[in-house]
Amino acid sequence: MSEDTVAANAGREELPTRVEIIPTAGIVDAAVSELPAASTLTVTCLPHHGIERTMAASLELAGHGFDVVPHLAARSIGSREQLASLLRDCHAAGIAEVFAIGGDKAQTAGPYDSSESLIRDIAEISGGALRIGVAGYPEGHPAISQQQLLDSLRSKAEFADRIVTQMCFSAELIERYISMLRSEGITLPVWAGVAGSVPRTKLISLATKIGVGSSLRFISGKGALGLRLLGGTHYRPEELTADLSVLGTPPAGIHLYSFNNLRNFAPSPA
Ligand SMILES: NC(=O)C1=CN([C@@H]2O[C@H](COP(=O)(O)OP(=O)(O)OC[C@H]3O[C@@H](n4cnc5c(N)ncnc54)[C@H](O)[C@@H]3O)[C@@H](O)[C@H]2O)C=CC1
Ligand SMILES: Nc1nc(=O)c2c([nH]1)NC[C@@H]1CN(c3ccc(C(=O)N[C@@H](CCC(=O)O)C(=O)O)cc3)CN21
Questions:
Q1: What is the distance in A from the centroid of ligand 1 to the CA of 134?
Q2: Which helix (H) or strand (E) holds 194?
Q3: How far, in Å, is the centroid of ligand 2 from the Cα of 170?
Q4: Cα–Cα distance measured from residue 64 to residue 37, given in angstroms and rounded to the nearest whole number
Q5: What protein family does this chain belong to (predicted)?
Q6: What's the angle, vertex CA 169, arms to CA 142 and CA 164, rounded to 5?
Q7: ipTM score here?
Q8: Which domains are present in the chain?
Q9: Would you list the DSSP string of 88-130?
Q10: What is the pTM of this model?
Q11: Is 114 in the pocket of ligand 2 (CB under 6 A)?
Q12: Mind listing the pLDDT tens digit of every residue in the chain (270 residues)?
């Protein structure tokens, strides 16, 4: 390591990191072989997969000793009884935290049309014994107004233990978001959602779909930096995570959207 690098890293504390995975075939084996045993893994719930795949992968990963956080998508849960059964399975597997999210499913499968009603039932059924994460949107949401997002966060805050942000590419936007929350009296720890090393084309198509295109444009407009981040075949998160770690009020940790690319990645404990 050169002296310049040492100087540049001085005072930089590495933020704790969690890794989000998609429950595709083979991902459990990949996690076992690629990730340190104590890693915290969060497991997405995609509309076309259903909650069953999220739970099956989560239970399997917990069996391997990982600290696991299943995503419970409100619109994919068929009934309060199904929710109670999922929570029993979590408890039996030693899973201590879940992520309560509305989910992208167009049609609501049961009684929960948003994460607001879901989080209340999770808290009630578990008797407050589970930690719960909720989503935050530093760049807003393509279909939900800022006011609605803030009202939604306020109503969930008393049941929630952390906010995990939507994928974002700008430390400045994350910082602004955290200070907005604080000025609104929301004091929950904020974990910054950061894309892992992902093929550039995949990132661009997904970012457009989920409404985070503007911060991608933000980095692509940053001249040499933008080119460095997006000009190769893969996006690289290192620059962003380094910037986040030196913010005046840094996030509580990094939530890494891995896109199931687990190779060459060793998270620090969360
Ligand atoms: N940030 C993330 O990691 C993920 C985000 N999502 C997306 O985020 C959305 C929001 O999820 P949550 O933050 O849990 O909020 P939510 O789905 O619980 O909704 C928050 C508030 O906005 C309203 N709302 C929801 N969808 C709306 C729409 N299409 N038009 C108008 N109002 C709407 C709800 O009624 C509620 O009052 C999901 O539906 C999905 O599109 C999905 C998976 C992961
Ligand atoms: N609106 C929204 N929905 C989400 O599901 C979501 C967000 N936002 N923000 C952050 C993360 C990122 N997520 C994802 C979801 C899917 C892929 C993905 O690679 N999907 C594959 C299909 C996988 C499969 O079906 O097996 C793809 O090719 O699109 C990546 C990141 C999930 N999360």
A1: 10
A2: strand 190-195
A3: 20
A4: 8
A5: Belongs to the methylenetetrahydrofolate reductase family.
A6: 70
A7: 0.95
A8: 14-197+251-257 (3.20.20.220)
A9: HHHHHTT--EEEEE--S-SS--SS-SSHHHHHHHHHHHHTT-S
A10: 0.92
A11: no
A12: 333 434 344 445 689 999 999 999 999 999 999 999 889 999 999 999 999 999 999 999 999 999 999 999 999 999 999 999 999 999 999 999 999 999 999 999 999 999 999 999 999 999 999 999 999 999 999 899 999 999 999 999 999 999 999 999 999 999 999 999 999 999 999 999 999 988 888 888 888 778 787 777 666 655 555 555 566 778 889 989 999 999 999 999 999 999 999 986 656 555
Centroid of ligand 2 to alpha carbon of 46 (angstroms): 7
Tokens of 3: 């002296």
With b for 16 or more beta-carbon neighbours within 10 A and e for fewer, the 134-148 pattern comes to: bbbbbbebeeeeeee
Q: Whose CA is nearest to atom 33 of ligand 2?
A: 44
Return the ligand number nearest the Cα of 102. Answer: 1
How far, in Å, is the centroid of ligand 1 from the Cα of 152?
A: 9
Cβ-based neighbours of 25, under 8 Å, separated by 6 or more:
none
Tokens coding 23: 């429950």
